[in-house]
Write a structure and sequence with these properties.
alpha/beta; eight-stranded mixed sheet; globular
Amino acid sequence: MKALVISGGGSKGAFAGGIAQYLIEEKKQNYDLFVGTSTGSLMLTHLALGKLDELKDIYSNVDQKTIFSNCPFKIKKYKGHTIVGINHFNTVMSFLKGSRTFGESLHLREMINKTVKDSYLRKVKGQNKRILVTVSNLTLNQVEFKDLNEHSFDDFRDYIWASSNFVPFMSLLVKNNYEYADGGFANLVPIREAIRQGATEIDAIILETEVTQLNRMPSKNPFSLMMNLFNYMQIHIEKYNISIGKLAADNKDVKLNLYYTPTVLTTNTLVFEKEKMRKWWTDGLKYAREKEN
């Protein structure tokens, strides 16, 4: 059984899309299982159906307003660089409204409703392909993998949304008395789960460089310190997930192909810029071709 695994990575998902396009359209890989975390979860339905052009269009036209109904960031351009700060007004408004998070990502949920259609999910099930999305159950302190075959379409879309919500900057999903958030807090690269589900060959797209290439700038405020801290934690969670995945693959004699990003794409994956994401898709496609050759 062949599986495609896509890690979390926010806006860097565009680069993963380019790699996936190569694997599915040019290398003609036919996957039985799709497992994703965060931005990876958003992509799986379209990838399972081979709707690469539609997925590319989505990732090429997304911006902050597409994702956030209340954006906690203030984004400025200075000498060609993107500077991210706190949007104090929006953050204060969130607290006044009684929100549990600094920002809200209700627009992302609306986009999922429009793009992950019932007809698409029905067709995936009809083709006997399996989709699993990774969520962090904060109430039970455990990672969970939500299988399309085990949930209603609306519930499954909720879990795709939860998997992509990087709290406390995005919305928190409260469902069945449980609090759900970004799967990347627990399992950023779910290779081991694909093996547990029976995969014998895995292509894993990892939206980080294989070797750390970044020294972060000093934090300027509590907000940027929090972002740096979360990014630090996720880098180490990712390395742990990959190490465990490699070990499981060796023990089960699973063929494992890893696709990293060759360079650092961005230091803030919650900033969505159309031009950059269009370029990243093209770069991902080119990188995958060159890697194979």
